[in-house]
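Same chain as my last thread, 121 residues:
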Amino acid sequence: MTLAKKELIKAMLKSIETDDPGPLAVVNEDKYIQHTPQTHEGSQGFAALFQQLSKTSPRVNIVQAFEDGDFALGVSEGNFNGDHCAFYDLLRLVDGKIVEHWDTIEMIAPRQDWKNNNGKF
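reply #2:
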C-alpha cells in the first residue's frame, strides 16, 4: 500500500522521534538529490541524519503537512538536545519514491504550552 504524500512526510518526520527506518526506504537511490549540504545523498544519508537526531531524545510535533502534485511539505517543531526548533521539509516524489529533499531548521523560543500539552497544540 502506497501512502499519500502528506502521510509519507508525516511518517518520515515522526521517524526522527521513533528511530523507525521504514519511511526512509522510499528513497529512489538512482535519482535522489539531497539539497541540504549537511546531509549525505540517498537513504543512507537520511538514516545517518535521523539516527544522529534520535540520540538527542527528540520530540517532533507535526504542525502541518501539505501535498501538491509531486511535492509534499512538512512543517514541524520539536526539541533536539534541549533546543527548540521549527523545521520545514519539502520532498519531491515520483512514482511513490522520494527523488529530492530540501529542508531548513531554525531555533525558536520554546512555547510554554509545549510542556503543558505534551507537545500538542
